[in-house]
Specification:
2 domains, about 20% strand, alpha+beta, 7 helices, seven-stranded antiparallel sheet
């Protein structure tokens, strides 16, 4: 709660500074740069909650009215109704997106399974061997060191230890089922391309603003070492 109040206070400072730099680039004074930075943080927070659009003028006006002790333009009942109505709209949009993603993932995986070099497992997980290793296989309770590159079906990168140039270390039990299942079948030195159905990834919940509901995922995984 304290963090939320601090963040809202910071947002208020942003709105107070709007008139100062509304017609100027955000690269001037410290207050201008600070205000812009806090606006970016707010935008990232809202986007992470699945909010893609916001009437910034109405938002700024509301904060300005509260800080200036002016009468509010909507009653409590009107505000509750507006929030509920918009939440219903967000839920409908998310459900539509989830259905479209599920259908796209299934079509992709069906076509992909027909490729001659793709292995289809009973769980629905698919993989393609890019390089064969000769080391050990990890046990279910092992931790591993890997390089990975994760993308959506359209090629957008959502996470990549390769791009960070820093291998990741984690327990097999601590990652999504599709990732864990693939690693449990790999040998140290293996390099696979892995195709993960949504039910073995993040399912209907998705993950943050990058991975939507029912998204199938594609990984390139290199098993570098087993940490015992």
């Amino acid at each position: 709660m304290k963090k939320s109040l601090y963040f809202l206070f910071s947002v208020s400072l942003v709105m107070l500074a709007v008139d100062v730099f509304a017609s100027e680039p955000p690269a001037g004074s410290v207050p201008q740069r600070y205000s812009y930075a806090m606006g970016v943080r707010l935008g990232q927070l809202l986007k992470g909650q699945g909010i893609q659009q916001l009437d910034s003028a109405a938002f700024a006006a509301a904060i300005d009215d509260v800080l200036a002790d002016r009468p509010l333009r909507l009653s409590d009942d009107q505000m509750r109704e507006a929030i509920a109505e918009q939440q219903r709209a967000f839920a409908a949009q998310r459900a539509q997106r989830a259905l479209a993603s599920l259908d796209a993932g299934r079509r992709f995986l069906t076509d992909n399974a027909a490729r001659g070099d793709v292995v289809l497992l009973p769980s629905g997980l698919q993989y393609r061997v890019l390089r064969t290793g000769t080391g050990e296989q990890p046990r279910p309770d092992d931790s591993v060191r890997v390089h990975y590159h994760g993308t959506l079906l359209d090629g957008r990168v959502f996470d990549s230890s390769v791009e960070r140039n820093q291998p990741a270390e984690f327990a097999l039990a601590g990652v999504i089922p599709g990732f864990s299942e693939a690693l449990s079948r790999m040998h140290v030195g293996d390099h696979w391309q892995v195709f993960v159905p949504s039910e073995l990834a993040y399912g209907e919940a998705g993950a943050g603003s990058d991975i939507g509901p029912n998204e199938a995922l594609v990984f390139e995984i290199q098993l570098l070492d087993i940490l015992r």
